[in-house]
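step: validate -> pass
step: tokenize input -> pass
step: predict -> running
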Amino acid sequence: MKSLDTIPTGKIERAGTLVKTGVKIGGNYMKYYGKKLVDPQTNRDTLNQDNAEDIYDGLKSLKGSALKVAQMLSMEKNILPRAYVEKFSLSQFSVPPLSAPLVRKTFKKYLGKYPEDVFDEFEKDSVNAASIGQVHRAEKDGKKLAVKIQYPGVAESISSDLALVKPVAIKMFNLKGKDSEKYFKEVEHKLVEETNYILELEQSDEITTACSVIPNMRFPKYYRELSSERILTMDWMEGTHLGELTRTDFDPKLGNTLGQALWDFYMFQIHKLRRVHADPHPGNFLVSSKGKLIAIDFGCIKQIPDDFYVPYFELAKEENINNDKVFMEKLYELEILTPTDSEEELQFFKALFKEMLTIFTSPFHKETFDFGDEGFWSKIANLSERYSKDEQIRKMNGNRGSKHFLYINRTFFGLYNLLHDLKAKVTVNTYQQYLN
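step: predict -> pass
step: emit ->
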């Protein structure tokens, strides 16, 4: 893959890149409608494929927040057309890296020295390039290290990048009015945190120490003296990316072991620490040769306040979903329903969330749950498809729910998808033994 010698860092320059992308998308629509005039049976598959490719190509050259949003959307397998999911998922593994000269210049800017002055060995070519930074192998005092270097200009362009992608998000998720601003502020706040590698180092130390009680989990050690706000150095961890493993004919016992570790890891964080690794995509996990799960990225950590945690997990209880009075109380507490809703909106969203929660919380209602069960996933997919085509929902205000839903739901969707890829059967409540 060709490396990048420069990244657009100015607001006008970055906006210009997206304008060019918009022109390409406009051309794709013209071709689609032209074909549809000739053949009314023409479907949108080619349009989706062309648009997904052009949007991704535009975002990958920008890197930063714009590409991070694509990465987040790639996890929404039941919301976006398949072409978008497949193309955007490349942002987890396959984006153009910085060239060696730009890496050297960037490293000097962020740590005050060139890589060769800090490490005994430093590989000039990256081993992994993602949305916010790229990783290089290094060695010092006999230790093999991973050095994450943030792309130049990423932290400074977050607000302007989100302003550029906001119109797309508003249309995609049916958001209306000024109330939608709380969601964009939440995303902006988390992205700002993700660009602060000192914060990531501190969070990584705290969470990995606490989670060391979880069986079959491994974590790297982090090195403060070799890190800065834009450089993060940790142990090099040997292993296969989880996404690569799940594309092989892996042993079902290994799938269950890894799935149980993953489930306990997340439940422990949520219920014990009240904060959680909120970026559960396959690129953030490795599998060691001994079948241990390795978590390697703690940049996105979501704090879970009590006034959200309590009603959220009360709605995970089957008896509360089926108790109309309690169910309605929790919907108001979680801002899913509001005092200004019409009777039509109340009834519509009450029914929607009852059906959704009945399906989505079903793993919590059993002693063991099989995430490889295609029946479970068919219910989720059918519900998503039915409501995505519902004309009534498009007429209603999409600003539903506390801002905390954004990253907590993202966490659960990502976790469920990873467990599905592993075809894991998990024991639901084993994590409780680690809570004391």
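step: describe -> The chain has a mean pLDDT of 82.
step: cleanup -> pass
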